[in-house]
Amino acid sequence: MLKHPRAARPVSEQVAVAPRYGLENLTIPRHELPADELSPDVAYQIVHDELMLDGNARLNTATFVTTWMEPQADRLMAECFDKNMIDKDEYPQTAELESRCVHILSRLWHAPDPRQATGCSTTGSSEAAMLGGLALKRRWQKRRTAAGASTDRPNLVMGINVQVCWEKFANYWDVEMRLVPMDGDRYHLNAEEAVKLCDENTIGVVAVLGSTFDGSYEPVAEICAALDDLQQRTGVDVPVHVDGASGAFIAPFLDPELEWDFRLPRVASINTSGHKYGLVYPGVGWIVWRDAQALPEDLIFWVNYLGDDMPTFALNFSRPGAQVAAQYYNFLRLGFAGYTRVQGYARDVATRMSAQIAELGPFELITRGDELPVFAVKLREQVTNFTVFDVSQALRERGWQVPAYTFPKNREDLAALRIVVRRGFTHDLADMLVEDLRRALQRLEKQPVPTHDASTASGFHH
Ligand SMILES: Cc1ncc(COP(=O)(O)O)c(C=O)c1O
């Protein structure tokens, strides 16, 4: 399968090996396995040079994923590159660190009995969402079967702002997606609309802590309260899964009073991305259930672990162990106070930068970065001679990657820019970005008509 839009571009079938003296005329095939070996230095140079055109990760305000870790974490990860997470028998200490991380998260999210923590690491929030969704579906099937009712038409209720992983879940596991559209200034799910879509075939409601579109928190407690009321009125009992891909690593530190986690009895499971605000390089997510009952036994497989049986629940079998070691390193290294400082700094940068951008004149804030350290801005209605897509393009000329995109159903008219502030993005970098934006505006304000629209935008995929 090769469907990348750029794959169709006419390119030579040969790759030049020119960067090294004496190899000026040497080429290797681009799309075929070369017939013979290359020296490691030459092979390294070719791959290294090819990657020069990738963007600079530190200037990428599109991604939520970690782009900076400490050198000690780099070293630890390099030491663990060869460890396979599934080989619990060969690497019992890596398995132990995974288990400690699950306990730490379970406690951080107020599970009723964190000593019985139930959960696992995954490749990211997408895999975690699949596992969370599967547990919801299986529990619903069991309840329905026990009641002698049909299990033909499961549905899952969520806002249209959910990340694409939920669309994948619904598609791969034959679950109807019931989407609450955006409405006016409401850009995410609310309690009233969520409950309207629930019925006896609803396996759960997904509430997102930290919407991918604008960084806003969905009102998890209100959604749970409305579902409590639904149960009282109709007997229909719908559990909630919190997609905390980003927010489950922000709210515990910066909004400790906010009840969005297992303090709410209706919350059955929570996923997060260790590789987002968990501050680990790409390749690790987490899912935790409130207790063992929330994860049906028959979804669990058993692997041999030091002569014992160890439960696993995962889509892949082999998976890198390095990210799990790095997650545990961060937990030790930062502790509660350290995570609070790092996330607090990101939120400071986001709120200060959003205020500066609001003062530039043509922009209006959709969010200000005071929930996730992420904010979205749109252009004022009076601005007709340039678009957010023009702004995104102009910033790219200086190396900044600031995605522009249109909102989904019912607000397709709304086009926005989104900035994700992560560890490694300092006040200083933010000032430079705002300065470049100011300079770009001087040019854009003089142009007669827009030059870019949604069809030429790169958008965001996170
Ligand atoms: C709310 C939300 N859920 C799920 C995901 C998917 O996460 P991952 O990239 O870890 O698979 C994202 C990614 O941005 C997200 O923002």
* Stretches with pLDDT under 50, minimum 5 residues: none
**Broad CATH class of the largest domain:** Alpha Beta
Q: Strand pairing plus helix content: what structural class?
A: alpha/beta
Strand arrangement, major sheet: 3-9-8-7-6-4-5
The average pLDDT score comes to 92
Portion in strands: 15-25%
Ligand kinds: pyridoxal-5'-phosphate
List the total number of helices: 11
What do we call the CATH topology of the largest domain? Answer: Aspartate Aminotransferase, domain 2
Helix proportion: 25-40%
Spatial shape: globular
Number of strands: 15
Question: Whole-number radius of gyration?
Answer: 24 Å
- Main pleated-sheet profile: 7 strands, mixed
Features:
single chain; 462 residues; alpha/beta; Aspartate Aminotransferase, domain 2; Aspartate Aminotransferase, domain 1; 7-stranded mixed beta sheet; 4-stranded antiparallel beta sheet; binds pyridoxal-5'-phosphate; lyase
Report on the structure:
This protein is an alpha/beta fold and 462 residues long. The protein folds into three domains: 50 residues, no CATH class; 258 residues, 3-Layer(aba) Sandwich (Aspartate Aminotransferase, domain 2), CATH 3.40.640.10; 112 residues, Aspartate Aminotransferase, domain 1 (Alpha-Beta Complex), CATH 3.90.1150. 34% of the residues lie in helices and 16% in strands. It has a seven-stranded mixed sheet, sandwiched between helices. α3 packs parallel to α9 and α9 packs across α11. It is globular. The site of pyridoxal-5'-phosphate has 15 residues, from α4.
